[in-house]
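re: ur question from earlier - yeah i can do the single chain one, its not a big deal. heres the input i used so u can compare w yours
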Amino acid sequence: MVRGAFDTLGIKVTKDKKAIKKAYSALVKQYHPEEHPEEWSRIHDAFQEAMEYAQGTVMRGSGFSGKQEETETEYREEEPEYEEDLQEEPDTGHGEDVRPESGYGEMFEDAHAKWMEKKSEKAHALAKRLDELIKAPMAVAVSEWKHFFAMEFLPGVESDELLMLFEAVQGNHIPDNAAKVIAATMIKRKEIYQNSMEFNKASLANAIVNCIYQKVPKLEKKAARRKKGIKEILKEMLMGVAIVIVVLAAYIFMTSGESTQKAEMKEMALRQLNEKYGKEVYAAEDIEVESCDVSSTEVVSFKITEKEGYEAVAYVLGKKGETENLLCFDRVQSGEIRQALEADVNERTGRTDGKLYWNSAGGSGECIKDGYFHEKYEGSVSDFMNREAKARETVTGLDAAVGGNFDAKNGKADYYLPHKDIKTIKQRIEIREDKEDEEFTASLGQCAADYEMQICGIVLPGKLFEERMKQGNWEEGGIVVKSTIYQLGMYPPISPALMTGWYVCLPPYGQEYLEVENGMYSGKLVDMAEGVWGIENRLRSREGMPGGIDMPEMPEGIEFDYSDLSGETDLTGRLKVVKAPESMGISEAKGQKSVSFSMTGIKELRDDYCLIIDKEAYGIPDSGYQVMVTEYRDGNEETREQPPVYYGELRSDIGYNDSLDGEGYLFTGYPNISEGEKAPVLTVIF
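and the output i got, formated as tokens:
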């Protein structure tokens, strides 16, 4: 979940507290807590989680290996220093600088530290147990999961423990029989939590069930509802007739109202679907309706499912209180639309080999799901996309969101292309910095304007492109769209070390909102040591902006120091081979070999770098090696692993603390350096 927090803040995963505070401060000015309470709360929670990660108190969430950050320091919630600049805002009670007396503060910090230590130990044990369950052989998986739920993971668990279970289920393969046990248990737990009014836990239990059914579509959903006999009912009535009457009356009132609403939604969905396609796509007896939650308080949504299925075939959604204007979004033509869009982009750009991965989710709080559309696809793709954008405005009020967090109505797409001339990583290193193809920028920019969507072109060396696309074709979902553009910070889906260019194109209103111009964004490789090259992982919109864009004007009374964004530090030759940290206990006498690198002669490194290491130059083998990074923050030494994976893997990312291996090169991240801190040491053990 840590990655989700940084996605909310619009920055990559980092331990730079200053960067986290800047991102948070920029967002809270856009979402006033009284006007956007849910959005403000989501941003505030993301800030706290990001700061916990920066402090070293958050579990590592990828893979559920049971490992934890080695150093877990005491966490104290930190608000950005910029909050004081927002005093002109109406007082909500959230921004007051309340400082307890020193005695109380010390008592609280001591108690909080003990609580965090106990909580951390519990989380560590649960992560280890979940890892064991996921790796359990199929023959014993069912019995192991049953024992886990019966003896260990009881209904009284905390919300964060349910969240850990959700992440474990979501991120790993679960055998069908074990998945059935998990789903059945969580259905029962959901009812328990609802009855005890623990709605957050009920929501998490429901999310786990949903995740299971997405992973195992053929698994039938069996609601475990215990029906009471007449004797038990009579007994309860004797114990409290008045209570029973009140409860039954309330239940009848609620269910009758809910049933009426669902019947209306079913009728509306059937009418719109059948009118749209000119035939009876579904009959009333074929479908069911279920209300579903969305992140926006302004939107209502109902899921339409087939009678014997679970996955949605359509959604009815729109503005709350405007029932007559709700619209139905379906996935009947989803595959056809995606294929047509990719073919049209390829035709416009003249690149028949391009692969388009499109996330069509959008709307207020992205309530419109990926792959669902209101308009019928017929005629040209541009005409269809234009009509679709207008429908989304009607549903979610996007017409009034230009001043908000909004850059494209029809979602975002990553468009992968092989470079016409560069085939290998060696050739990519030799060119250092590619030139922009202005004709390609113009054609892709026109696509973004016509489709009213964000399109980012990712140009890769030919061999890497083939490997990535081979991986992409193996998964039904393809490559995840994860380009991030956030004003001063621009984070491509792949490190610039692997790309020859990143073409960012948005519709005109998206360019205006994000204050970027369409064009190619890239960085220049630097010779950092013999056989080692480096490039920044982040592309800033100030120095890297095509045509040069001035910094955005801040609201009156708000000032930021942009000194860290000006100037360029020459890192040529600044990476040196050093001794491995003693804490690693590496000993050549024990047959251990390693090579360590560290920056020298610089006071501060403002961004993480991606290092490209020629493995042959340092005797690093093809496989079986480890990559470790030792950082020195606030006087503490902390070492973490950056595990190497094949550079063609879909979900691997330098920004997510992965190392990539391919074509004889190791690609790995080197952390930023705060002023006054000791430079990190990157160690490869083999």
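The first strand starts at residue 287 and ends at 292. not sure if urs matches, ping me
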